[in-house]
Specification:
The structure holds 2 protein chains of 2 kinds. Chain A is built from 10 helices and 10 strands. Chain A is α/β, with parallel strands linked by helices. In chain A, the strands form 2 sheets. A 6-stranded mixed beta sheet of chain A has the order 6-7-8-3-9-10, sandwiched between helices. The model of chain A has no long low-confidence stretch (mean pLDDT 86). The radius of gyration of chain B is 21 Å and the shape is globular. Classes of the chains: A alpha/beta, B mainly alpha.
Chain lengths: 267, 266
């Protein structure tokens, strides 16, 4: 079997005394699209930040390309990061640079390519995401969907082996979200990239995923193929797929708090 | 016990801050060559030149106004007293030595801190809040290298230049006072200035200005990098950058002036 591109072992993350991720074990195979699904506060973004090495775990290890990214030199981490492209939830384009300059930036900084080659490469990446005409616009002049696509173009600028996206379709209308899904599949087909997508949009997950991992209150409760996930009988997954509300207001904790606030004795 | 705890934690916090500044200073110093033209990263020198325009050229009108006002006030205040002793010519020494050694570097540092130190922390703080700093790190770039280094190089070059300009404007304003209140001609005033200052007055001022530039850039950038939270946090770090850099500039001024005093340089 080929080595997994990402391998997470017994990962625990505690933030402010609260366990955000609990004993996560996960392997991401080369060339697959893995979607990590989960509700708000399930720990999805924290997991992304761990994979990219932006935060230290409380315990456990994260191997990317076979290297433990929390216990290696800065040079090794930077080398590994250069084989990754990351798209953040808010796109995080550099506000002072035009769309083209945003895509050119990693090429300028990390390669010794000649200026015209960089120009051609950045244009190709922007054209691939449908932003060929928006090269000279500033991020503030782009719509939400265009920003996300520009962020995808920047993330793919150095032809990474691994692409990671955090909520690529959050806040976008269904048509633009579907376009982004097709873009992700297109990138996978074209460049054989391994793609990890973090989302809570099921339609998107079922369209693009090879496998789906389900995060629930900091634990990875399921990691299955798309087909197995869709027919799962796990009540937590069914609740998520069938959109059943949590009835938070009727939970004992909320009721107790309400009785206390209302001054009802015997709370 | 609570008072002692408060004092202890306060001291530890301040020491930790100085530690963070020191680490950032050395990291910043190591990446300075990467900004230089020809030998450095491409594009970085261009960024430094844009910063030079923002820190230096754009600050010139304010430096001119502040220095001329201070020079004129300085001359009037000292002239009012010295006139009684018939020692008006001493005003020239006071203004020219005062500006080259002290007021030029200090006023410049305060102007740069309020204009550019605040801008650095706001810019970097916003980059932190909008994940742009995280993007840099995920690209395998060091934020200090990409964000801080061009600003530092730009400040190291422009702040001493601004100090020279501040000295000149302050001395000119002193001259305006002398022309208005005595029978001295402008040429006589300039000759008297040239006689009163020596080279060491100017270069001690310039040494100070390099230290002040370092403080303003590093405090501004550190406050930006430490931003945590939303837009209100950016506001807090901007305020903090100006307050801390102004305070540290004045403390550094005391230290440098004392060193120059005991070594007979100043």
């Amino acid at each position: 079997m080929v080595d997994p591109i990402i391998s997470i072992r017994d990962l625990n993350v505690t933030l402010g005394g609260h366990a955000v991720l609990k004993r996560i074990n996960l392997d991401v195979k080369r060339g697959e699209v893995l979607v990590l699904l989960g509700g708000s506060g399930a720990g999805k973004t924290t997991l992304l930040r761990q994979i990219v090495g932006l935060e230290q775990p409380s315990s456990g290890t994260v191997y990317v390309q076979g290297v433990d990214i929390n216990h290696c030199s800065e040079k090794e981490v930077n080398h590994i990061r250069r084989t990754m492209g990351v798209g953040f939830q808010e796109a995080a384009l550099f506000g002072g640079l035009s769309t083209r300059e945003n895509v050119e930036m990693p090429l300028h900084e990390l390669t010794s390519l000649a200026e015209p080659v960089i120009g051609i490469m950045s244009y190709l990446k922007l054209a691939a995401v449908g932003l060929g005409d928006a090269c000279n616009l500033l991020p503030a002049e782009l719509s939400g969907g265009m920003k996300k696509r520009a962020a995808v173009a920047r993330a793919t600028a150095l032809d990474p082996e691994l692409l990671i996206f955090d909520e690529p379709s959050a806040g976008l209308d269904p048509i633009v979200a579907a376009e982004l899904d097709e873009l992700i599949l297109f990138l996978k087909r074209l460049f054989q990239m391994t793609i990890v997508v973090i989302t809570h949009e099921m339609a998107s997950a079922f369209r693009i995923a090879d496998r789906i991992g389900f995060l629930c209150q900091g634990t990875l409760c399921a990691l299955e193929t798309k087909e197995a996930f869709q027919t799962s009988t796990d009540p937590r997954i069914r609740q998520f797929i069938d959109r059943i509300p949590d009835q938070v207001i009727e939970s004992p904790a909320v009721q107790k708090q309400l009785r206390e606030l209302a001054g009802i004795k015997g709370a | 016990m609570n008072v002692l705890q408060g004092i202890g934690s306060g001291v530890i916090q301040r020491l930790a801050y100085v530690g963070q500044l020191t680490v950032q200073f050395w990291s910043g110093l190591l990446v300075v060559p990467r900004v230089l033209p020809v030998v450095g990263n491409r594009g970085r020198w261009g960024a430094a030149v844009r910063q030079m325009a923002a820190i230096g050229v754009d600050a010139l009108p304010m430096i001119a106004m502040v220095s001329m006002s201070a020079g004129f006030i300085f001359a009037m205040q000292s002239g009012a007293e010295l006139r009684r002793f018939g020692a008006m010519t001493l005003v020239i020494d006071i203004v020219s030595i005062g500006f080259t050694r002290e007021l030029g570097p200090l006023l410049t540092a305060i102007v740069v801190s309020s204009r550019s130190g605040s801008a650095f922390s706001a810019e970097i703080g916003t980059m932190v809040v909008t994940n742009e700093i995280d993007v840099l790190r995920t690209m395998g770039l060091r934020p200090i290298d990409y964000v801080l280094a061009p600003k530092y190089v730009a400040a190291l070059i422009t702040v001493p230049c601004l100090v020279i300009m501040s000295d000149a404007f302050g001395i000119l304003a002193g001259g305006a006072f002398m022309l208005l209140s005595t029978k001295m001609t402008f040429l006589m005033y300039l000759r008297a200035v040239a006689n009163s200052i020596v080279l060491r007055d100017v270069y001690t001022g310039l040494i100070k200005s390099v230290a002040f530039a370092t403080i303003v850039v590093h405090v501004g950038c550190l406050e930006g990098f430490k931003t945590h939270g939303g837009p209100d946090a950016v506001g807090r770090s901007t305020t903090s950058a100006v307050v801390k850099s102004t305070l540290l500039v004045i403390l550094a001024d005391v230290l440098f002036t004392y060193i120059f005093y005991i070594t007979k340089l100043g």
